[in-house]
Amino acid sequence: MSAALLLPVITIAQLMLVSAMALHVFRMVRGPRAQDRVVALDAFYVSGMLLLITLGMRTGSTRYFEASVIIALLGFATTVALAKFLMRGEVVE
Description:
By secondary structure, the chain is an all-alpha fold. Helix content is 86%, strand content 0%. It has one domain (3-88): Helix Hairpins. It is elongated. The model has no long low-confidence stretch (mean pLDDT 92).
């Protein structure tokens, strides 16, 4: 891929990810049930992780990729803990 084509495509992807994150925040605030809020939080951290990856592609820095891996690990652990809390009412047994 040429650099002239890659930069506008990354910019469009970043704009779409930011708009998706805004919709996820709306669902977290307005969600009728707690399960909807957990799913919106899960989608929010995935969109944030992808936004950092596109930012790393744009700048060429590896720090963004490392930060996205940390966000992925923490987001997965948070989703599991919230799902366990919603199912049983407690996280630690």
